[in-house]
Amino acid sequence: MLGPVILAASRSDRMRRLISAMPVTKQVVDRFIPGETVDDVVPIIESLTDQGLELTMDVVGEDITTPEQAYAARDAYLALVDRLRDLGLGERVEMSVKLSMFGQALEGGHELALANVRPVVEAAAAIGTTVTLDAEDHTTLDSMFAIHEELRKDFPQTGCVIQAYLFRTEADARRLAEAGSRVRLVKGAYKEPAEVAYQQKHEIDKAYVRVLKTLMEGEGYPMIGSHDPRLISIAQELARKAGRKLDEYEFQMLYGIRGDEHLRLAAEGHRMRVYTAYGTDWYGYFMRRLAEKPANLRFFLRSMVSKG
Predict the structure, then answer these.
(1) Which of 17, 75, 132, 238 is the most exposed place for a label (fewest CB within 10 A)?
(2) Is 184 a catalytic residue?
(3) Interhelix angle for 201-217 vs 229-241, to 10°?
């Protein structure tokens, strides 16, 4: 399977330099990451919301090595909040953050990440929106969940992400499926060892359905992060059986993938949120998109050949 190989490459400085230097790379990256600055993505935000879609915005960047970089990440999100306020779109556009970008992996990183993300969450609440804490590799999750719990004391709408391929996730879902919680369920996009995660697609799919059932039957607000048509259908059926109205859960998909499906679900009355990333440090995000789905890798390889 190519997925683990690509995920390993996502951590390689040599591969980063090689792929970044390819002339075709920018064209393909633009499919998933529509800009480098807030100004670049404002037209995307306006276009998608005009079509009845909602968004979650991600300023890409994870390889933070200094506190100064973490402060810059915080400031980038605060600038995004300012633009959303100016656009009057606070209730339509939320934000997703990776705590590694806020300094989680540095010395004293747990406290640093909490101190950096709190003003972003506070600013988001002031314009009527919220923040979801993205899940990263399994070694970071205890810290992420502790920060999530701390933030929810003052900002109970703060969301978090859980990953179906991890063995721990079913227990995490039971704990999180409480009134007022917002939980995004994804399959998982990091290279994890067999000791902590399912490795086969069919195992991951089964785990996804089990966890989703727990969330749908709970009292929180499930966010279904998947492009898989079968899982989307299962999610709709689980929501029906749980007696959920269309505004009591939502679908989330990545910008650049299955755009027609985004519009179809929105037209049916579902809440459909498009995960839209922007920024200059795109490499890790881009490589995980290639690893997640063979069609994405084929698109990249075809583009290399056609432009070669």
Answers:
(1) 17
(2) yes
(3) 30
**Pair of tokens at residue 245:** 């109205």
> Is the torsion defined by CA of 64, 38, 21, 29 positive or negative?
positive
Bridge partners of residue 58, in order along the sequence: 277
Residue with tokens 């969301």: 159
Other beta carbons within 10 angstroms of residue 193's beta carbon come to 8
> Which two structure tokens, joined as six digits, stand for 190?
């990091």
Distances (CA, A) of 65 to 59, 69, 70, 190: 17, 7, 8, 20
Residue-wise pLDDT tens digits, 45-86: 999 999 999 999 999 876 789 999 999 999 999 999 999 999
Choosing from 74, 182, 184, 271, the catalytic residue is: 184
**Among 22-26, 88-92, 155-159, the least confident range:** 22-26
Q: Which of 134, 182, 205, 271 is catalytic?
A: 134
Exposure on the CB side of residue 161, measured as CA atoms within 13 A? 26
How far is the C-alpha of 291 from the C-alpha of 287, rounded, in Å? 6
Is pLDDT of 131 > 90?
Answer: yes
Query: Which distant-in-sequence residues (6+ apart) come within 8 Å of 17 by Cβ?
Result: none
pLDDT for residue 257 is more than 90: no
Is 137 an active-site residue? no
